[in-house]
């Protein structure tokens, strides 16, 4: 029940409301819990509310770490 | 990352976990507190990557599963007595009460609407006005602020026929009870609940219980990273709270969401299936927001409800047993015809075992 998915904020439509997009699917979102959300941010959306803004830098750090692990495994496979 | 890279990353993490567990030389048991993790773990089949001496058990973080049977009865009785329109998340509609579920109530002519967002309850209330419209308030800290924000909006818009029947739960108190269990050596902490309450809020696990915790995302690789960190901390006997979901979870969580929650709700005792009454582990409406309280304004006599004594849901929710040990599992109790809530909820442990096999 705590499912939440990242969606990109593509419009601010009013006081504390916006529109988000994920893969071409648009939805209304409440920004009441994210007063500092900006256009282009990826929001974590739960039950029609943005509950957090995705930290792009942390997301990239995570992928870098995974790529390193994958590369190490690939080397072992070749060895 | 492509799927080959993801697979290699998973293999690398699984290898680290196996090395740590082999060196530890003793069995370790961790609890995934959150039902959404339970489902992700089973759907991805990642248990098959784990060594035999690392065991994962499910916890109480499935809101529908820990909600007592009497809550369904209360909702249906309110629907009947006041000709009220019931509004709920989809997870709840097939949970068996003492005299049917919300689905059977609807089939008998009751008014039940399934919504995606609590805000949809306002729309429903306006359509139904002046008929009382009751939102069934089930959920943890991820969901509670969305209901609180909805009531703030309803207050501002003067919607006077909307009510909430609260059965909300907060995670810290039950976690303190479970942390005292000797056979649990660490906790995979919920991702989106932590987005609200903050990774820094679990320090008591270390200070009071000397047990590690890792906040995890819901991707299988996120879960493997957290399991690796938990294994290492448990094996070395150096517990900490690690945040392995930093792209979403801040140490302090989301203070704006908590302020909204605190304006509308105050702590109250709550009944948990499997854990009984836990003081201060639930929420009641606060101050002027009591005008939305269905329990106060639409009272009904709710008879004491009894769970089927053969159903092991309560023990499963505290990590004391697993669904395959239940005599009803897959026989009398299936997702189509469930006996207990752990088989109904899309994130119930029994539903996960039934759908993806006993790991």
Any chance you could write out the topology, listing elements then pairs?
The complex is a heterodimer of chains A (79) and B (359).
Chain A: E1 5-14, E2 17-22, E3 25-30, E4 42-46, E5 49-53, H1 56-78
Antiparallel strand pairs in A: 1-2, 1-4, 2-3, 4-5
Chain B: H1 3-24, E1 28-34, H2 35-44, E2 54-61, H3 63-66, H4 69-82, E3 85-88, H5 102-107, E4 111-114, H6 119-128, E5 133-137, H7 144-156, E6 162-166, H8 172-179, E7 186-189, H9 191-197, H10 204-207, E8 213-216, H11 220-236, E9 241-244, H12 255-264, E10 265-272, E11 276-285, H13 294-297, H14 313-316, H15 349-356
Parallel strand pairs in B: 1-2, 1-7, 3-4, 3-5, 5-6, 7-8, 8-9
Antiparallel strand pairs in B: 10-11
Helix pairs in contact in B: 1-11, 2-15, 7-12
> Biggest interface and its residues per chain?
A-B, 33 and 51 residues
Roughly how many Å is the radius of gyration of chain B?
Answer: 21 Å
Per CATH, the class of chain A reads Mainly Beta
CATH architectural label of chain A: Roll
Summed up, the domain count of chain A is 1
CATH architecture group name of one domain in chain B: 3-Layer(aba) Sandwich
Number of strands of chain A: 5
What integer value in Å does the Rg of chain A equal? Answer: 17 Å
Strand order of the largest sheet of chain B: 2-1-7-8-9
Give helix % range of chain A: 25-40%
Q: Class by helix and strand content of chain A? A: alpha+beta
The backbone outline of chain B, from C-alpha atoms, is globular
Would you tell me the overall average pLDDT of chain A?
A: 94
User: How is the main sheet of chain A built?
Assistant: 5 strands, antiparallel
Helix segment tally of chain A:
1
CATH topology of chain A: SH3 type barrels
Description:
The complex is a heterodimer of chains A (79) and B (359). With 79 residues, chain A is an alpha+beta fold. Chain A has a single domain, classed as SH3 type barrels, CATH 2.30.30. Chain A contains 1 helix and 5 strands; from the N terminus they run βββββα. In chain A, strands 3-2-1-4-5 form a 5-stranded antiparallel β-sheet, with no helix packed on it. In chain A, β4 and β5 form a beta hairpin. The model of chain A has no long low-confidence stretch (mean pLDDT 94). Chain B contains 15 helices and 11 strands. In chain B, strands 2-1-7-8-9 form a 5-stranded parallel β-sheet, sandwiched between helices. Chain B is α/β, with parallel strands linked by helices. Among the domains of chain B are: 148 residues, HypD, alpha/beta domain 2 (Rossmann fold), CATH 3.40.50; 44 residues, no CATH class. Helix content of chain B is 39%, strand content 18%. Classes of the chains: A alpha+beta (79), B alpha/beta (359). At the A-B interface, β5 and α1 of A face α1, α7, α9 and α12 of B.
